[in-house]
Design brief:
Radius of gyration: 24 Å
Oligomer: single chain
Number of strands: 4
InterPro entries: DNA/RNA_pol_sf (IPR043502), GrpII_Intron_Splice-Mob/Def (IPR051083), Mat_intron_G2 (IPR013597), RT_dom (IPR000477)
Organism: Methylocaldum marinum
Protein name: RNA-directed DNA polymerase
Keywords: Nucleotidyltransferase, RNA-directed DNA polymerase, Transferase
Strand order of the largest sheet: 1-2
Helix content: 55-70%
Number of helices: 12
GO molecular function: RNA-directed DNA polymerase activity
Largest sheet: 2 strands, antiparallel
Length: about 220
């Protein structure tokens, strides 16, 4: 793995060679994507590029990561194409969900204000990079999943039945629903999607506490807001 600066210096000749050949390509550091019309042509170009790198530039080629694949099976800098749309890769999304689980973990003993601040910083940074994805379909589901995890964190933080009932009543939940939910022995995750917790901790209410909306950020990036 080359540093971006070193790669840009060493591989500048490769960029010029690819441009001279008329190839459509993109490169960041030592990650290179070349778009070719057919698999057969792709194999020829791959061999030719490998020969140029090892022969002229004296650089080793990683055969394990050098592949000729269709555009829908190609991942470049965390992105891929699916059905003609640019979207984040499954690997990038798995990393995102893993980090969200860490930031919204029940066992992380921090205040909700601090948790929401750290979550907002991470989500904004992630969306500033991956928000150019054209695929809107998963966006509402991601938002709902994050809100549910935050409701779970609040519920765990309130802890005691009297505290849970008091907070739910203050947030507008009916007395019956507040008591039934607080007395339930079901898991924090299950209770985070009950009528009591959702009417008490509304979407707008969570937003006022500082919860960032993935949908709002996506809409802004794509010029809809």
């Amino acid at each position: 793995m080359l540093s971006p600066l070193l790669a840009n210096i060493l591989l500048d000749d490769l960029d010029k060679e690819l441009a001279r050949r008329g190839h459509a390509f993109a490169r960041y550091a030592d990650d290179l994507l070349v778009l070719i019309k057919s698999e057969r042509a792709g194999e020829r170009v791959k061999t030719s590029i490998a020969r140029f790198l090892t022969g002229k530039l004296k650089l080793a080629v990683n055969e394990r990561t050098s592949r000729v694949v269709s555009v829908e099976h190609c991942t470049f800098l965390g992105f891929t194409f699916r059905k003609g749309k640019l979207r984040w890769s499954d690997e990038a999304f798995d990393d995102f969900k893993h980090r969200i689980r860490q930031l919204t973990g029940r066992s992380w003993g921090v205040s909700m204000a601090y948790r929401l601040e750290k979550l907002a910083i991470y989500v904004r940074g992630w969306m500033n990079y991956f928000g150019i994805s054209d695929d809107y379909r998963p966006i509402p589901e991601i938002d709902a999943w994050i809100r549910r995890r935050i409701r779970m964190c609040y519920w765990k933080q309130w802890r005691y039945v009297r505290t849970q009932v008091r907070y739910l009543l203050a947030l507008g939940t009916s007395k019956r629903q507040a008591i039934l939910t607080a007395l339930s022995s079901k898991s924090y995750w299950h209770l985070s999607k009950t009528l009591a917790t959702q009417t008490g901790m509304t979407n707008d209410g969570l937003a006022s506490q500082g919860l960032i909306s993935i949908r709002t950020l996506w809409m802004r990036i794509h010029g809809y807001a």
